[in-house]
């Protein structure tokens, strides 16, 4: 008893199996989390070091280069990029694809631990972190209250922030803006000179006096009591009355004699504002494996509780941005596409199969496969994200493939007069081999993706395995549930012309019959006019290649995805103050908020950038505005976000001259780089900056280039202090003393804390604001010389002058570098990069300047390369699978001819839909390799069966093409119709799935039209050659057999 006969006679086994899969699938669905994208790791480690008060050149020499040297010996390093800014160093270590990022982080940490003692004493301990898409904030909040600013800040920091950090999955919450309480000791430089003491003496006196010491215990025979020296300040007067110095013949000099002590606020370093209202901004980041939707829900619950408990203080949290909103919209959009695809495929089935009964037999494979896929996803640890749901949507048409082929063949045997039982057995037996081949070639194309080590492979792995598993379940359905149902309920439908629906079906059948007759006649002509048909195909290929050469199809890594949000960055002159920056930013906000299409604006004035490669340090002259727009249909001319952003930026540049505006769309995935990123490396910074300026000027004039800027720019104002080391040594001073005092004077010293109750507040000691506003005052900073035994001015042993220098210094792989970055507008990044390369060919770089690409160019090269290798590997796997199935090396080659003709339709579809060649378009090409061969397999397999029954190969291939035309039309149209909702989708996340669906639709369509002629023609040629060659070979063998040994 064979397998199919067992299923028909003893269906309980298969019913139990699918009951388990169905129940497990429904249970798993409830446990699956929602995410926008699959979690994937980027093999990059960042090392951030804060060096307060240091200029970029100092940061580079004292911190960045030392860290570079330490980590350069790590294994599997791809690139090391260093950025030295004022007061901060950022070293980015990129590892080769496939590197275990956790191990790499541990090894990097060990290297840093071994060298941290070589860093300056004032430099903070380096902070290491992995770069991950989860480093992007998933929520932005603004907290407001009627409480005094400093009181509310303390409450947020000490009470509300810890409550939110306790939410499972929250990795980090950064506060921006607000007023922090601080004890200010503002020292008057004139009074220091009058009393003959230095700022360093004041600082040391305060820090050394504000201490507590556990000094032991007082013990007796009956008890012991802890002895503690209480030296902490208990009031402002304690600080004011503290003795700093006592002259030999004078009164003690107290802090109040040289300084003003106030209970005040720290200098404002950043400001947060939402829709014009100031407050405390909070950026919430999640852990790499956490669920953003669940975190958002729990955070909102905590916020509601906090607001309720603090209603008397009018505490309120405004959610300025919540990534879960777009995530759920994307999931809902894909789910809608999936449901629509199921409905459309069901209509196609009803049209071809003539009855609801037969349509149900086929369509049962869809829920059986989809629900089982949920169980698979749960076991694999996947989530309901854009990729897995896209996989389930695209696979709808594929799921009915096997069942269509099986049912159609069973129907053909029913038409021969057989009963249900026999028709089912014979039909499945006849078509079973082809059905297995159909499924295997679809599944094996995804195997290489699961084995490739690259970022893009991590992103696509969940998509690939979900499609593969669902397809395998559909094969199981076609060999179990489909035969079982056909053996019980299948029947031939007799159409009644008086029934309107039946009349329509009869008209449709007549059309199919006419098409079949036309196809049979045309196929005979093609086989008889092989050269003419080959010429037609070559002409089609040439025409397609010519159209592609026109540059109609652009290139890009991935589509950004339109969330209706963009980031507008404004930079004032480098000398601008925070107050000036804030006033300008507010003016721009007020202007933008008058536009009805602008819904919200979150302002981050002088705060740290929210980007993945941020150093965590803000810039006084820089502001980020996160702008959310109304839906596209409510915008002028229904502009997409990117075009609206560019128009707005140009409008602001004209209205607010002197401000540098840059902008970028907030997409679904941030790879950490810009669409255009050119890294120029060399040994001479001046030459690099000159060359970069020239390249940037030409790039700004290139169509499609936008927001072009150079990373390293001169002109950052700075007071340059050049020490005469000999004079300094004669005065008994050293660099550490001089640098420490200058830092104390202008940045402040906050080593000491003032305790009130259970709270600690900084005591900041620095020069009075009046003494810090004039660069000339730097010359008059006094130091106490132990050799001269008197105060000395800085000007006595140093040259102090006002100059300028770069605000950022860069290095790439331990060489000085300058980076040119830019965004794109209206063209794919790959297309623009090709244009730039053409320009560089005409205008070559100097011999000692080298160019390397980062950003999208690097990602695109690696991603396209990985998928290219995967496609070659998939082609080989498919061929080997068919060799095993056919026991032939020749017929699989015939089947492979269906792939080139699919590329024609795929490229035309991309051009007509104005889509770019991206990673997802290439994924569509990879899927096509498996999908388009099914038509060829159906024809070749049936032709082989007919030849085995004694039919001549020419008659066999013509008859096979005619008989398999109907299932080919059914399966192809089902897949194309099932993918149309995805191709035409315009909802959240549609930019990614559109190009993938169009590639599949175009490729399947052209393959269906051309394969049914090309494959039979190649099959005929192969058999004709084999016939002639085989007869000669047979004669030779017979001759050899007659030769005596």
Automatic annotation (TrEMBL):
Keyword Transmembrane set for record: yes
Membrane-crossing segments per the record? 12-32, 333-353, 360-380, 386-410, 431-457, 463-485, 531-553, 867-886, 893-913, 919-944, 965-984, 996-1022
InterPro entries with a match to the protein in the record: AcrB_DN_DC_subdom (IPR027463), Acrflvin-R (IPR001036)
Pfam families the UniProt entry points to: ACR_tran
Q: Which UniProt keywords apply?
A: Membrane, Transmembrane, Transmembrane helix
Q: Which domain of life is it from?
A: Bacteria
Question: What one GO molecular function would you report for this record?
Answer: xenobiotic transmembrane transporter activity
Any GO CC annotation of this UniProt entry: plasma membrane
Q: Does the keyword GTP-binding apply?
A: no
Q: What is this protein called?
A: Acriflavin resistance protein
């Amino acid at each position: 008893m064979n397998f199919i006969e067992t299923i028909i006679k003893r269906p309980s086994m298969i019913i139990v199996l699918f009951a388990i899969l169905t129940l497990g699938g429904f249970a798993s669905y409830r446990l699956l989390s929602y995410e926008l994208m699959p979690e994937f790791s980027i093999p990059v480690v960042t090392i951030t070091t804060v060096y307060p008060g240091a200029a970029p050149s100092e940061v580079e020499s004292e911190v960045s280069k030392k860290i570079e040297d330490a980590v350069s010996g790590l294994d599997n390093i791809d690139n090391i990029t260093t950025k030295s800014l004022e007061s901060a160093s950022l070293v980015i270590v990129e590892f080769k694809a496939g590197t275990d990022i956790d191990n790499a982080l541990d090894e990097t940490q060990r290297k840093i631990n071994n060298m941290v003692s070589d860093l300056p004493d004032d430099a903070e301990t380096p902070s290491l972190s992995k770069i991950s898409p989860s480093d992007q904030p998933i929520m932005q909040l603004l907290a407001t209250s009627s409480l005094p600013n400093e009181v509310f800040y303390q409450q947020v920091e000490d009470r509300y922030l810890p409550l939110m950090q306790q939410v499972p999955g929250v990795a980090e919450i950064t506060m921006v803006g607000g007023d922090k309480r601080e004890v200010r000791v503002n020292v008057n430089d004139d009074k220091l000179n009058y009393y003959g003491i230095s700022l360093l003496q004041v600082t040391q006196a305060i820090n050394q006096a504000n201490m507590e010491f556990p000094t032991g215990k007082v013990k007796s025979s009956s008890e012991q009591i802890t002895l503690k020296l209480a030296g902490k300040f208990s009031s402002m007067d304690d600080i004011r009355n503290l003795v700093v110095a006592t002259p030999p013949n004078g009164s003690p000099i107290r802090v109040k004699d040289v300084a003003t002590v106030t209970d005040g606020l720290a200098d404002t370093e950043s400001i947060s504002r939402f829709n014009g209202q100031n407050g405390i901004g909070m950026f919430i980041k999640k852990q790499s494996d956490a669920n953003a939707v669940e975190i958002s829900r729990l955070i909102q619950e905590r916020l509601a509780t906090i607001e309720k408990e603090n209603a008397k203080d009018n505490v309120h949290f405004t959610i300025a941005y919540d990534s879960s909103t777009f995530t759920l919209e994307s999931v809902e959009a894909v789910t809608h596409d999936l449901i629509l695809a199921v409905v459309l495929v069901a209509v196609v089935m009803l049209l071809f199969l003539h009855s609801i009964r037969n349509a149900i037999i086929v369509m049962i494979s869809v829920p059986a496969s989809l629900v089982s896929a949920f169980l698979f996803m749960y076991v694999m640890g996947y989530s309901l994200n854009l990729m897995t749901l896209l996989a389930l949507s695209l696979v709808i048409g594929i799921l009915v493939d096997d069942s269509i082929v099986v049912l159609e063949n069973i129907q053909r045997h029913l038409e021969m007069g057989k009963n249900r039982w026999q028709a089912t057995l014979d039909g499945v037996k006849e078509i079973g081999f082809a059905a297995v081949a159909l499924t295997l070639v679809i599944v094996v194309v995804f195997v290489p993706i699961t084995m490739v080590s690259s970022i893009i492979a991590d992103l696509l792995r969940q998509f690939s395995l979900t499609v593969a598993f669902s397809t395998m379940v559909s094969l199981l359905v076609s060999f179990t549930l489909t035969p079982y149902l056909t053996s019980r309920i299948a029947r031939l439908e007799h159409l009644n012309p008086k029934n309107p629906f039946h009349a329509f079906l009869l008209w449709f059948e007549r059309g199919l019959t006419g098409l079949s007759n036309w196809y049979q006649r045309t196929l005979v002509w093609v086989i008889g006019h092989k050269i003419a048909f080959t010429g037609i195909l070559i002409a089609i290929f040439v025409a397609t290649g010519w159209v592609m050469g026109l540059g109609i199809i652009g290139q890009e890594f991935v589509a950004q995805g339109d969330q209706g949000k963009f980031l507008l960055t404004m930079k004032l002159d480098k000398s601008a103050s925070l107050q000036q920056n804030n006033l300008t930013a507010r003016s721009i906000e007020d202007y933008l908020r008058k536009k009805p299409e602008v819904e919200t604006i979150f302002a981050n004035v002088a705060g740290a950038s929210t980007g993945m490669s941020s150093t965590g340090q803000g810039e006084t002259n820089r502001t980020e505005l996160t702008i959310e727009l109304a839906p596209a249909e409510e915008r002028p001319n229904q502009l997409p976000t990117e075009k609206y952003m560019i128009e707005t930026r140009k409008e602001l540049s004209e209205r607010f001259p002197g401000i540098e505006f840059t902008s970028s769309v907030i997409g679904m995935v941030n790879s950490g780089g810009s669409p255009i990123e050119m890294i120029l490396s060399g040994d001479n910074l001046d030459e690099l900056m000159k060359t970069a300026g020239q390249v940037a000027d030409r790039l700004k004039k290139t169509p499609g280039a936008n927001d072009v800027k150079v990373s390293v720019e001169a002109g950052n104002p700075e007071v340059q202090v050049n020490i005469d080391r000999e004079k300094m040594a004669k005065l008994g001073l050293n660099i550490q003393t001089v640098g420490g005092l200058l830092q104390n004077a202008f940045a402040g010293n906050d080593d000491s804390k003032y305790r009130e109750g259970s709270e600690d507040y900084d005591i900041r000691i620095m020069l009075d604001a009046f003494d810090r506003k004039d660069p000339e005052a730097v010359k008059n900073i006094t130091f106490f010389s132990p050799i001269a035994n008197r105060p000395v001015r800085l000007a006595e042993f140093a040259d102090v002058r006002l100059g300028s220098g770069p605000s950022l210094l860069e290095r790439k792989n331990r060489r000085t570098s300058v980076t040119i970055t830019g965004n794109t507008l209206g063209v794919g990044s790959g297309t623009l990069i090709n244009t730039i390369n053409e320009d560089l060919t005409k205008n070559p770089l100097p011999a000692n300047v080298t160019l390397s690409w980062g950003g999208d160019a690097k990602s695109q090269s690696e991603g396209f390369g990985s998928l290219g290798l995967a496609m070659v590997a998939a082609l080989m796997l498919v061929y080997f699978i068919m060799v095993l199935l056919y026991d032939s090396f020749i017929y699989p080659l015939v089947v492979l001819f269906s792939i080139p003709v699919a590329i024609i339709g795929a490229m035309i579809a991309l051009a007509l839909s104005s889509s770019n060649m991206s990673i997802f378009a290439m994924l569509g090409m990879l899927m096509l390799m498996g999908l388009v061969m099914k038509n060829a397999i159906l024809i070749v397999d049936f032709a082989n069966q007919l030849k085995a029954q004694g039919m001549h190969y020419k008659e066999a291939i013509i008859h096979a093409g005619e008989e398999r035309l109907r299932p080919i039309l059914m399966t192809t149209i089902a897949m194309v119709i099932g993918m149309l909702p995805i191709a035409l989708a315009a909802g959240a996340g549609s930019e990614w799935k559109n190009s993938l669906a169009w590639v599949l639709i175009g490729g399947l369509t052209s393959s269906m039209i051309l394969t049914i002629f090309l494959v039979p023609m190649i099959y005929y040629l192969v058999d004709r050659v084999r016939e002639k060659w085989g007869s000669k070979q047979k004669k030779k063998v017979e001759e050899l057999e007659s030769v005596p040994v």
